[in-house]
Write a structure and sequence with these properties.
The protein is an alpha+beta fold. It has helices at residues 75-84, 87-94, 103-110, 164-178, and strands at residues 7-12, 15-18, 21-24, 27-31, 55-58, 64-69, 117-125, 132-142, 148-155, 183-185. Helix 4 (164-178) links the parallel strand 9 (148-155) and strand 10. The protein starts with 6 loop residues before the first strand and ends with a strand.
Amino acid sequence: VCALPWVRGLTLDPVIVAGSRAHVGGASFDVDPARKLLRGYPHMAIHPYPVELIGDVPLRDGTVLHVRPIRPEDADMERSFVNGLSEQTRYYRFFYRLSELTPAMLARFTQVDYDRELALVAIAATDEGGSQAFVGVARYIANPDRLSAEFAVVVADAWQRRGVARVLMQGLIVCAKRRGLERLEG
């Protein structure tokens, strides 16, 4: 429905349910040929998670980081990430002495309105068991003029000077341009 707004109706008939399985015997759909291909999701009040932004990115040293938009279920990783920053790095990111993210801040940072803001996270494996942690976060929030946005970027102390911020900012800039933003201010 999100990706194909020109579909007016979809009929699945018959649908046979047996135990925990379902089988669709036939499908048909109606389309509105007058509807044009939309760029993005202007027809929706709440934009879906941008899965097209998920990917792996190599750093200069060959380390590969997983980069993707932040999700609400990332709250624990976001809290651990900010708690693991040095006092100086936290100050440079938030411009005041922050001891810990409040629940409201945590919700604000992880529950993103993908239409007017974006937060990209860089994730690295922390051990052989598959555990993961944020090593960087870059975000923008569009201003009311919808032509400019404020951005912020922060990288974990142990990952600084390895190209993480560059990778995140390049991704953020590409996304901002696609959204029609003309300027990022930070």
